[in-house]
Design brief:
Elements: H1 12-30, H2 41-58, H3 65-98, H4 103-113, H5 117-123, H6 131-135, H7 142-161, H8 170-195, H9 197-202, H10 208-223, H11 227-230, H12 236-247, H13 253-269, H14 275-280, H15 283-290, H16 292-308, H17 317-341, H18 348-367, E1 402-404, E2 410-411, E3 426-428, E4 436-442, H19 454-458, E5 462-466, E6 468-469, H20 484-500, E7 508-512, H21 525-530
Helix pairs in contact: 1-2, 1-15, 1-16, 2-7, 2-10, 2-13, 3-4, 3-7, 3-16, 3-17, 3-18, 4-5, 4-18, 5-7, 7-8, 8-10, 10-13, 12-13, 16-17
């Protein structure tokens, strides 16, 4: 049975496209090897958001800017905040139960309520693809930050262009302004992808072009209605197939550009008579698309909770998928949908104030977890280190484990040349009575091994001495650039021999270094510039 197309007010096939996007993201987050480019589903979401927001703003009948902007933000508050607030508070409770030091997660959660999780994550230099991001229960909210920051800029453009007020050249003006900003944003994205990947990934200015592509897709349909007829020679099924092909690739800059271009083309090309249109309007994809926002929030919460507890294995996947669908359904039907369609207040301004009040209240509740001595942790408190611990963070372990403090045990920058290392501050266990001693030396990757010693210290009565030097080469005498050569040589020639004298026959030395720039796979121009030995 064909589905009725109601102009531009609602396009059911877009829900089907949302479903494909969120499925790709979830598969990627379960196992990247299954769908290496699956996280590009977020890029598809950005294009769709640009299209939908432009359509929404174009239907505004507000006569004043204040009325226009208040109406828009009130709708956004009702659409996004309830599900985010509920999932955020539940996440705070869960992470406090399973993580003895949840500060990083909680701070990310607080920032997420203010639409700034992406800025916080970028400020922490947290890469989306490394282990810490996988253990942060709020990492997925970075994309909401990008969209919400877009919402502070784009409505101004729509109003200034005259598009929302049906001015004579409003559509053309908005298209010109958006195109200029799209080009600037795309160039910034390409540049940052090569020089500062976290900035390219997390920041709104380098993502603006993706949302702008959705905007231009809508404007193209409105400006040139005949464009769809001219594109009939392009099979939408082929476009979907190309998108699926890209999602199976290890993603580089060009793949992101390709997925955005294909999504825009699909938004313009799809029409009710197409087989692909009918497929996207099928019942299961429509349902998944409608709950896609809640799915996006809750799938990550379930996966992170699983990583902290039972892990993700073949036998756990059916359970985890079931929990994801159940929590997302409950979120959509009990929170997202009712609050979205409810009459919160008599005015848009009051709705916005209610939203701000809810954000502040939610932030205060989350902030309780940051109070010293507050803990809901239900695990073994005698672990050597928590799973989010890094060498550059000071950390003290009390009791029979002795103590290890990150900062005093590291050469971290030039001023640390000649720094005195206090062995007592860098040792886990009792050095004098230990059955065996292990000396851990190397660059900052030594931090990854701090979690390996719980049983050795607690049950086997070993003593672990951990020291490190940022940027340390694999041996003294290597010419390192970026100021690490002096630090590395000082570490290997002064500190390591000093500590090695504490060892006895049968003790162990672990030399840890990723050797990244020595690998044939990384002997490119950047590596040659980094290591003098390749020049």
């Amino acid at each position: 049975m064909p589905i009725k197309q109601t102009g531009q007010s609602y396009r059911p096939e877009i829900d089907g496209l949302r479903a494909l996007a969120v499925i790709a993201v979830i598969i990627n987050h379960f196992n990247r090897e299954l769908l290496p480019g699956g996280h590009l589903g977020v890029d598809i979401f950005f294009v769709i958001s640009g299209y939908v927001i432009t359509a929404s703003l174009g239907r505004s009948n507000s006569s004043t800017f204040t009325e226009f902007i208040a109406s828009f933000y009130a709708r956004r508050v009702k659409r996004l905040l309830p599900a985010l607030l509920v999932s955020g508070l539940v996440s705070a409770l869960l992470i406090c139960l399973i993580n003895p030091k949840p500060d990083l997660d909680i701070k990310t959660g607080i920032y997420s309520l203010f639409g700034a999780a992406n800025l916080w994550l970028y400020g922490q230099s947290t890469n989306y693809f490394d282990k810490p991001a996988e253990l942060n229960i709020y990492t997925q909210t970075w994309s909401l930050g990008v969209e919400e920051q877009f919402y502070f800029v784009f409505p101004m453009l729509v109003w200034l262009s005259g598009f929302s007020r049906l001015k004579k050249h409003g559509r053309r003006n908005l298209a010109i302004m958006t195109t200029i900003l799209l080009i600037a944003s795309l160039l910034l994205y390409i540049y940052l992808s090569r020089t500062n990947q976290p900035a390219a990934f997390y920041l709104m200015p380098s993502r603006f072009w993706e949302l702008a592509a959705g905007c231009l897709s809508l404007l193209a349909i409105k400006q040139w209605p005949q464009l769809r007829d001219k594109l009939k020679l392009v099979p939408p099924g082929l476009v979907i197939a190309l998108m699926m092909f890209i999602l199976h690739l290890v993603v580089k800059t060009r793949e992101s550009i390709g997925i955005v271009a294909l999504t825009s083309l699909l938004l313009i090309r799809l029409q009710p008579g197409d087989f692909t249109y009918r497929l996207l309007c099928s019942g299961i994809l429509q349902w998944i698309g409608k709950i896609s926002y809640s799915l996006y929030l809750w799938h990550w919460i379930i996966l992170v909770f699983s990583r902290w507890t039972i892990g993700i294995h073949a036998w756990t996947i059916p359970i985890q998928v079931g929990m994801i669908l159940a929590t997302a359904s409950a979120s959509y039907y009990k929170v997202e949908k009712p609050f979205r369609h409810a009459q919160w207040t008599s005015t848009n301004r009051q709705t916005i104030l209610y939203g701000l009040g809810s954000i502040l209240l939610g932030s205060i509740i989350m902030a309780v977890a940051l109070i010293p001595r507050f803990s809901l942790y239900v695990g073994n408190r005698r672990g050597v280190l928590s799973k989010d611990q890094f060498l550059h963070q000071s950390y003290k372990v009390q009791g029979t484990l002795g103590q290890w403090e990150g900062t005093p045990c590291i050469l971290g920058e030039g001023k640390d040349l000649g720094k005195i290392i206090n062995i007592n501050q860098c040792t886990l266990g009792n050095l004098s009575t230990a059955k065996r001693r292990i000396l851990v030396v190397g660059n900052s990757f030594s931090a990854a091994f701090t979690h390996a010693f719980d049983q050795l210290v607690q049950k086997d009565e070993y003593a672990i001495i951990i020291t490190s030097s940022f940027g340390a080469g694999a041996t003294p005498g290597i010419k390192m650039k970026r100021g690490f050569d002096e630090l590395s040589n000082d570490y290997w020639r002064r500190i390591v021999p000093q500590i090695s004298n504490l060892l006895k026959p049968g003790d162990i030395i672990l030399m840890i270094n990723d050797l990244n720039y020595f690998s044939p796979l990384h002997q490119d121009q950047e590596s040659k510039e980094y290591l003098g030995i390749f020049e």
